[in-house]
Design a protein that fits this description.
The chain is of the alpha/beta class and 385 residues long. The protein has helices at residues 9-19, 22-29, 36-43, 91-102, 116-122, 136-148, 167-172, 182-190, 192-206, 241-250, 263-271, 293-303, 319-327, 337-369, and strands spanning 48-50, 65-67, 70-72, 76-78, 107-109, 127-130, 153-157, 211-212, 222-223, 254-260, 276-279, 310-313, 332-335, 382-384. The structure holds flavin mononucleotide.
């Protein structure tokens, strides 16, 4: 990869579309039903405009942020994404290493296929995102595994009690559990680089079909082609606030709720003593018609005490997008697909380039905005229409 060929996240998206089989790109890129929320996430940025200040002196700029006493080099991180093994052999290690090298948070999805204990050895400091089942025994064992792995931040996704209606996956013949079909075979033949670099390498190097080995305390997990005992979603639809209250007692680390859209859910997180929330609609991949993430952010920020960490994801593609969220009170912005496009195109180097591009855009726009410290951004720098 000649990294200077890629000037923006959009360049990576175009290249990822070319290298990935249609069904895999569709899985990453797609939304649900009519993709209203997917589109709304992007459109919301046009409703927030900057009001730059001049003559401030912007020669020395910083975009470092601090969260729970930890310093991060940029105000953005990598959102949890499941089944990334479809995009790149050992993709999670590429994402985790690139994040650790750049000093940004990486959230490991529970639906990942490299054991968290291995990732801790190559890139410690990742956060873990769980699809937590409504079963205290299973949760207790998972928490013990996370403690043993020195995970400090547990992200609980609350917008996925059941699977969503992703018609594009059905049309492309893409299912989880993964099933081979003639359509998929043809897709692979049309993408020989992917068939060699991802499919063949995974089977040859790992000598097995990737396994979901981080869902629970069971380190063996189950193959991505298997329907596990108790069903793929393992009773997630039983999870409710009582489980979170119990987890707060049982888990001494940070707990963050991901998928918060309603201010009252954020209020409840504060009351329960949880450590933060991520305003998110799962990148438009769950409830179609849900409000855009950027549009939902101000109400959530207003519902919690000043300084309580409200993070956000969904549709962020530019440094300027990130600055708009920071001006609206976000403590951190997460990006999903852009990071996966980087990994699909060029592994760790591709993710590093995406991070560099976004970091450079944040830096340049801080100067043009007349706000040399990202932590000083507030509503005075924007207008909402
Ligand atoms: C391929 C893919 C897989 C995802 N898997 C998960 C997951 O396992 N857990 C989760 O909480 N969110 C998951 N998400 C949602 C992301 O964490 C995040 O909310 C979303 O991607 C943000 O939108 P963006 O892709 O526009 O940046 C996934 C998103 C994508 C694109």
């Amino acid at each position: 990869m000649r990294s200077d060929e890629f000037l923006s996240v959009a360049d990576f998206e175009r290249r990822a579309q070319a290298v990935l089989p249609r069904c895999v790109f569709g899985y990453v890129n797609g939304g649900t039903e009519d993709c209203l929320t997917l589109a709304a996430n992007r459109a919301a940025f046009a409703d927030v405009q900057f009001r730059p200040r001049g003559l401030v002196g912007v020669a020395a700029r910083t975009q470092a942020v601090r969260l729970w006493g930890r310093d991060y080099a940029h105000p953005f991180g990598i959102a949890p994404m499941g089944v990334t093994a479809m995009c790149r052999h050992r993709c999670e290690a590429d994402l985790a290493r690139a994040a650790a090298a750049a000093g940004i948070p990486f959230v490991l999805s529970g639906l990942s296929t490299q054991p968290m204990e291995q990732l801790r050895d190559v890139a410690p400091g990742f956060w873990y995102q769980g699809y937590i089942p409504g079963d205290r025994d299973v949760i207790a064992q998972l928490l013990q595994r996370l403690r043993d792995c020195a995970v400090e931040v547990l992200v609980v996704t609350i917008d996925t009690p059941i699977g969503a209606n992703r018609e594009n996956n059905q049309r492309n013949g893409f299912t989880i559990p993964f099933r081979f079909s003639s359509r998929l075979l043809w897709d692979g033949i049309c993408h020989p680089r992917w068939s060699l670099d991802v499919f063949a390498r995974t089977l040859l190097a790992d000598r097995q079909i990737p396994r979901f080995c981080n869902v629970t305390a069971d380190t063996r997990g189950y193959a991505i082609t298997e329907e596990p005992q108790g069903g793929f979603r393992q009773g997630r639809d039983r999870l409710d606030w009582s489980h979170l209250a119990w987890m707060r007692e049982a888990w001494p680390g940070r707990i963050v709720l991901k998928g918060v859209a309603h201010p009252q859910d954020a209020e409840r997180a504060v009351q329960l003593g949880l450590d933060g929330v991520i305003v998110s609609n799962h990148g438009g991949r769950q409830l179609d018609g849900a409000q855009a993430a950027l549009a939902a952010l101000p109400q959530v920020v207003a519902a919690v005490p000043a300084g309580y960490p409200v993070m956000v994801d969904g549709g962020f593609r530019r440094g300027s997008d990130i600055l708009k969220a920071m001006a609206l009170g976000a403590a951190m912005v997460f990006l999903g697909r852009p990071m996966l496009y980087g990994a699909a195109v060029a592994g760790q180097e591709g993710v590093a380039r995406v991070i560099d591009i976004l970091g450079a855009e944040v830096d340049r726009n801080l100067a043009l905005l007349g706000c040399p410290d990202v932590n000083d951004l507030d509503e005075a720098f924007i207008i909402r229409s």
